[in-house]
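Q: Can someone sanity-check these two? First one:
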Amino acid sequence: MFSTPFVLSFALLLSLPLLFLFAPRFLPPKHVQISLPDELDDLALFRRATLSSSSSLLLNHHHHHHYHAVSRLGTTNPKPKIAFLFLTNTDLHFAPLWELFFQGHKPLFNIYIHADPSAKLTIPPGSVFENRFIAARKTERASPTLISAARRLLATALLDDPLNSYFAIISQHCIPLHSFQFAYRTLLSSPQISTESPPELTQFNYPTSFIEILSGEPQLWDRYTARGENVMLPEVSFERFRVGSQFFVLARRHALLVIKDRRLWRKFRLPCLNTQSCYPEEHYFPTLLSMEDPNGCSHYTLTRVNWTDSFDGHPHVYHPPEISLNLIHELRVSNSTYSYLFARKFSPDCLKPLLDLASGMGNLVSFLRIGN
């Protein structure tokens, strides 16, 4: 017979592989922490962007929706720009399609990329994406790092060019559904709304921000209490807590509002205890804008997402067999005032069929002009 110590040692040896396999399922997961030096760096960036914006642009706004300002080149009354903010942790798989989208419109847009330091990106020389990377830090799902990354993008774009008037958060899985002309015309000719925010400029009308803001969702309570039962109080009561899409288009005044915020950020930067219900980036921006300026927002997004067969918090992923001209038309259809301008989520191998679809119609540009 085997001795008891031998049996125990043998059992322990056999259990070690099982321990490594199952322990992560029972132990609380480790998350990327926002260090104090990183937080201070962000605050310094936000202050610079706020001061720069306060002293340069947005002095007036006339009925053609063009901002009266003097650009760095000295041109008076130049056209406003759209800042495209790419937030990614992988390569920019659809860069060739976006290159097509941007072609010929350089004076009307800027690009900024926040790439997770672990991401391996391949940007060919001469690309519109070349040298458009901002200082980035590691991001992680179910953590406030995605909020920080978006705020960092907004601040950098505000600081970089005073003509940036709209700020579109884009993921590496997004594709454009219309031409640049259509998107630009949609945003810059959107109906102007009167708002009490900011109070020092109430004599003007302001462009709308396109961000999803929802209340009454089935899992809203679980999401609200993800950090603990009463942790969000008193700053955010459950009645004022909102949910929305991670991807949105903000007008300049709302981008400034986001980077100026300290009060709500102190709550949303706290770690979640229940990571299954924790999506900080889907809550912080809708809640903040709903609390500060609900009438200045559309309450819907311009990025189409298919949640019909979502899994583990991820939406439907389109694959090559699904790519067709009919799909593009279907993705554009919206129940709101405007057509969707962008769509996600597409697998990287969709690039070729998308470009093939465009090429088969005579030339690449025609794909992005269908129905415009």
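And here is the second, same format, sequence then tokens:
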Amino acid sequence: MPIMNKQVAGRVFLRLLYADTYYPDHVVDRGTAILLRLCERIEAEQPSDLAALYVLTQAATEEFNLLEAEFEAAGSEIETVAREEIAEDFGFVASAYGFTDADVEELIATRNW
């Protein structure tokens, strides 16, 4: 399903991670795919309020929790820079879909990283 939101469609997710060789591109690609799937779900399900949005973002966060093992297997980890970049992209997604008052910590409340 192509992303319809033009802001999102033009976004390079996890840009700082791609720019740093510490983060293997093939694992970062998986993170980007998680964020794109989140956008697809938001467009398909059209959450009506923050509570509904948080359900979707926290499910995507669970996928990032599982991705941590892949980062570690590749000699990397979701550390400070990665945490900040991932959180920023979750905040961007919420804002791009009109949830400008979303709390980033709540968006990723289920994180283990």
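A (reply): Looked at the second one. The mean pLDDT is 97. Helices lie at 6-9, 15-19, 25-45, 50-73, 80-96, 104-107.
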